[in-house]
Write a structure and sequence with these properties.
This protein is of the alpha/beta class. It is about 45% helix and about 15% strand. The chain is flat. One of its GO terms (cellular component) is membrane.
Length: about 350
């Protein structure tokens, strides 16, 4: 039986020994028997297990066990004080103080342990200058002019570029467009600074947030470019942020780093109320442009371009009249794929 079939049917093979090694005709038979049995499901790998974890986590929250604690207390109180005369005779100052203190304690615990809402205040996308704009035809001509790719690699890049969602008004950093290409640390740093500072300037201008005073949490994620000092340190020094700003620089996590950064910002805002968190998701391609003929690595040349997304979550409510927004949907509406990717 094939391994794939056994895995799908949850079958397992077991070795057993016969008590009597003689067959029915008196001849000797093999004493080892292979038995195929159905094993128990692997609960650790089950997708539904995550819902059990969520239920246990929710069951242990303050909002769930506080009513469970109040119901028995109210039931016992109603059972003890059935008649008004019993209530009148049993209540004294010490009892009132005890009940009032218990209620205040429970409300205080609930107030400080309750989950605080996290709001998205604003977001901004980076759009480079027109001098860095390049069309699909210009990109393919630039690729061919390098002389580093064979015919098969050029045909592959042409197919990927034409079938992708990229338009004729996308952008590439100047180090990649130069002839010969300037793929060095200085160009990569220039690309990172242009993306980060250009986007942050627009973000702070639209929100009115003072980066020197208001920003308490800074999270930057960039998988392919992680210099020393870090990108988050560059931002802190450029905007002269507070000395106690909580800075995080995520690298080498790929596309999942954006979600990880948002989750980290939410946790940090829960622990540090009345604060603003700036989350930057970007990528750097100057030092990661591939000049070879491996198709799996050529794919990144065709789909990774110059861009960044930055948003500001906060635990304080947004200003009145400001709607909540979806950064990805609104960003596409503001810079459609035809004009910006």
């Amino acid at each position: 039986m094939e391994a794939a079939v056994m895995e799908r049917e949850r079958l397992t093979a077991e070795m057993a020994f016969r008590d009597d090694a003689r067959a029915a005709g008196g001849e000797w038979a093999p004493s080892i028997v292979i038995k195929i049995r159905r094993r128990l499901p692997d609960f650790a790998r089950s997708v539904n297990l995550k819902y059990v974890k969520l239920g246990i986590r929710h069951g242990g929250s303050v909002t769930s066990y506080l009513p469970m604690l109040c119901v028995p207390l109210l039931a016992s109180a109603a059972y003890s004080f059935v008649r008004l005369d019993v209530i009148y005779r049993s209540i004294d100052l010490l009892t009132c103080v005890a009940w009032l203190g218990t209620a205040v304690l429970l409300l205080t615990v609930y107030y400080f342990k309750r989950p605080r809402p996290v709001y998205l205040v604003e977001f901004a996308c980076y759009k480079p200058d027109d001098q860095h704009k390049i069309s699909k035809e210009g990109f393919l001509e630039m690729t061919e002019s390098t002389g580093c790719f064979n015919d098969a690699a050029l045909d592959f890049q042409t197919k990927i570029t034409n079938r992708s969602a990229l338009g004729d008004e996308t952008y590439l950093p100047p180090g990649v467009q130069a002839r010969p290409p300037r793929l060095n640390m200085a160009e990569a740093r220039m690309e990172a600074e242009a993306v980060m500072f250009g986007c942050l300037d627009a973000l702070f201008e639209s929100t009115g947030i003072n980066p020197k005073r208001d920003v308490g949490i800074l999270i930057v994620n960039c998988s392919l470019f992680n210099p020393t000092p870090s990108l988050s340190s560059m931002i802190i020094n450029h905007y002269e942020m507070r000395a106690d700003v909580k800075s995080f620089n995520l690298g080498g996590m790929g596309c999942s780093a954006g979600l990880i950064a948002i989750d980290l910002a939410k946790d940090m805002l829960q622990a540090n109320p009345n604060s603003y968190a700036v989350v930057l998701s970007t990528e750097n391609i100057t030092l990661n442009w591939y000049f070879g003929n491996d198709r799996s690595m050529l794919l990144s040349n065709c789909i990774f371009l110059w861009r960044a997304l930055r948003d500001v979550p906060a635990v304080s409510p947004p200003p009145k009249g400001k709607k909540s927004c979806n950064p990805w949907v609104d960003c596409v509406a503001k810079y459609p794929p035809k004009a910006y990717v």
